[in-house]
Amino acid sequence: MRVLAIETSCDETAVSILECSGSVSGATFRVLGNALYSQADLHAQYGGVFPTLAKREHIKNLPVMYAEAMRQAGNPTVDLIAVTQGPGLEPALWTGIEYAKELGDTLGVPVFGTDHMEGHIVSGLVSQNDASSYTLSAPAFPILGLLISGGHTELVLMRTWHQYELVGRTLDDAVGEAFDKVARMLDLPYPGGPRIEKLAAQASARGAVHDIVFPRPMLHDKSCNFSFSGLKTAVLYRIREMKDLSDDDKEHIAQAFQDAAREVLVAKTKKALLETGARTLAVGGGVSASKNIRAGLEDLVRTDFPEVHLSYPTGGLHLDNSIMIGMAAYLRHAAGYPSGPLEARGAQKLAP
Ligand code: KG4
Ligand code: ZN
Fold first, then answer.
1. pLDDT of 89 above 90
2. Which domains are delineated in the chain?
3. How confident is the model over 121-129, as a mean pLDDT?
């Protein structure tokens, strides 16, 4: 089945065309066309994503991305249109949904509303075969999903496909949001995660010695919940105390902040693995691009859970993209589920 997928939940405008076969017990996805435009540079001046600007850019770029994906794929007929319906920025989501509906009418093809976070989970479960194809091999259940992005920080349990139980979540900021805000305090552009990681790596490479230690919020709390807003505030106070920051100071702050964020993520994931007995740990979302955080999770699994299979996105699927939306839609459709609502649901939750 050929799926045309559209993603506009935040600041990426993306359209893909996938040839999909198989089912949740083993599926293959060949990318026939993939066009993605990131608005990140545009939002950089605001230090975060500005919803009305994102909407305007999506409206402008959707037809361009569609034409490009179609051109790459050789203008094939499609059987299903997948579109992200939430969670995300509602004005941005609506642009993709309206565009998908119009396209569905024009092409006479059904439109399938898809959850963005389910896309991130699926992107963490598939493995890349070559530049343009991915395989889903039957994963071992239960699966613990660690979803870490600019809008979400959640631990969800899947005992079987498409059934989600909430294990833990952030009570305030998402971890990616904390990275972005701390980056802003250090005068680094949006998105902040990769910049912080780079500064922290520079500090490690030169064996930097400093006394900066930030709090690990909720580390010893019994739940698997997270909190990142206190950590962010602690960074702010420290920066105010230090006044004029040298380049070395910035590296030290980035390193200390990243250490704190990673330690909390790893500790809560450990707690969740112990509580749930999960056999697969699937990491998804933009923060899963962090080599530093991946290394922390790899250490955890190697030392404490050697029987758990750790998988995270490969082939560029960690950041927002439409390939993951097409894959998630196809798997739900193949399992006989109806489409999600064709309306923007900004606060939609996988597991209430
Ligand atoms: O999944 P995503 O592309 O968009 C959302 O759905 O939010 O995630 C973007 C987030 C941003 O907050 C960005 O700073 C963060 O992922 N991020 C990182 C890294 N790369 C991206 N955070 C930490 N370290 C990284 N290397
Ligand atoms: Zn995302």
1. yes
2. 2-126+314-334 (3.30.420.40), 143-311 (3.30.420.40)
3. 96
